[in-house]
Inverse folding.
């Protein structure tokens, strides 16, 4: 049986366990990221959402992934520094993980099951976005090309609910 969102955990790049239960009552935006992807400029838009709405209860979690054309060459040891220096990222980054295949991270396994994609459940590329409401219920999945600004209306609605 699939675990509810709040029973799942993720590791920081330093190996510290973060339980999703820490985010009860928060709106959570989960994104699979890659520093060398053509969509990497979205880091700036994601950071804008983080800065604008974190005080109101938005949690942004970036999961670096190297499954798409080797576009995340950074190691867990360097990922945070590279994202900060090159993109101004201050939101929480997690350890590199797989979002598809046999070693899919449990959070992505759960989210893909709850919010199927167009045609298939697979994460199709870097910067696929998932929003979870304040009750830990997966709300919506967004395509890689959907700019972070386009999520703002849904985030505001969920923060105010």
């Amino acid at each position: 049986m699939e675990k509810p969102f709040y029973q799942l955990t993720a590791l920081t790049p330093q190996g510290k366990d973060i339980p999703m239960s820490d985010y009860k009552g928060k709106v959570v935006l989960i994104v699979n990221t890659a520093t060398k992807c053509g969509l990497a400029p979205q880091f700036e838009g994601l950071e804008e959402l983080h800065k604008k709405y974190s005080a109101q209860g938005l949690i942004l979690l970036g999961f670096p992934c190297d499954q798409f054309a080797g576009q995340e060459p950074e190691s867990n040891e360097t990922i945070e520094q590279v994202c900060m220096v090159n993109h101004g990222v201050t939101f929480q980054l997690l350890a590199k993980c797989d979002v598809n295949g046999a070693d899919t991270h449990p959070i992505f396994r759960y989210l893909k099951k709850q919010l199927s994609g167009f045609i298939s459940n697979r994460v199709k590329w870097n910067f696929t976005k998932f929003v979870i409401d304040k009750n830990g219920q997966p709300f919506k999945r967004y395509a890689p090309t959907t700019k972070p600004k386009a999520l703002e209306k849904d985030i505001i609605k969920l923060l105010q609910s």
